[in-house]
């Protein structure tokens, strides 16, 4: 970790797609141990920011600093090796692999991992996620919410310091959403750092320690959830949907 307690920082991040400026000079720093909610209307640039902060996209302007080291432009596996994990807005599981196998794959990518040890960790992970009874099912046969839980499990197999979750609650049954929230809170208490993206304010307000709001590629608010929630610029951005 850097001396100021910042785990990862995007500084003046700009990313363009043709004529669209998806991120327009965004400053976004996450302190070790924080649980940050990142919200904003559809198309406001949340996923693009995650893609930049996890090394899946190289910014056109600005930089990413991870544990005090500039990493923008480096490949995503460098970020992963430094403890950065993310889930995708549409889950990226191996549908024709079993639930257990889906966890084995990222587990085996870690250095010095034996299949036996990885299987043990994968089973422990499934217990934690309440998916143990489904370990032999093909991932494609899970419900949407179970797939989101399994994707969280895939991240955990990398033993990350920070997890970026892109719309983990979208399309998830309320029962499983509560389950997912509980698991996130438990992992956070155990010391992991989170950035959770959603466009639904209510789920995010329940768990965030800090709330960041984007609109049209820019960060328009950043602070304690209760203050941000009533911010005039935020209300206007949501009303203008
Ligand atoms: P959000 O996640 O907040 O909904 P995105 O970051 O996905 O927003 O998108 C921000 C803007 O950038 C949108 O206008 C979107 O259409 C555009 N965009 C995102 N990714 C691409 C891409 N790969 N190619 C072209 N345009 C993109
Ligand atoms: Mg998105």
SSE layout and pairing:
Layout: E1 6-17, E2 20-31, E3 35-39, H1 46-53, E4 61-66, E5 69-70, H2 76-81, E6 84-86, H3 99-108, H4 115-128, H5 144-156, E7 162-166, H6 174-189, E8 193-198, H7 201-207, E9 210-215, E10 218-223, H8 225-229, H9 232-239
Parallel strand pairs: 3-8, 3-9, 6-7, 7-8
Antiparallel strand pairs: 1-2, 1-4, 4-5, 9-10
Helix pairs in contact: 3-4, 3-5
Bound molecules: adenosine-5'-diphosphate (ADP) and magnesium ion.
Q: How would you sum up this structure, described in words?
A:
- The protein has 241 residues and is α/β, with parallel strands linked by helices.
- The chain has 2 domains: 1-82 and 209-241, Rossmann fold; 89-162 and 174-191, 3-Layer(aba) Sandwich (Rossmann fold), CATH 3.40.50.
- The protein has helices spanning 46-53, 76-81, 99-108, 115-128, 144-156, 174-189, 201-207, 225-229, 232-239, and strands spanning 6-17, 20-31, 35-39, 61-66, 69-70, 84-86, 162-166, 193-198, 210-215, 218-223.
- The strands form 2 sheets. Strands 6-7-8-3-9-10 form a 6-stranded mixed sheet, sandwiched between helices. It has a 4-stranded antiparallel sheet with strand order 2-1-4-5, with helices on one face.
- Strand 7 (162-166), helix 6 and strand 8 (193-198) form a beta-alpha-beta unit.
- The longest helix has 16 residues, at 174-189.
- The chain is globular.
- The model has no long low-confidence stretch (mean pLDDT 92).
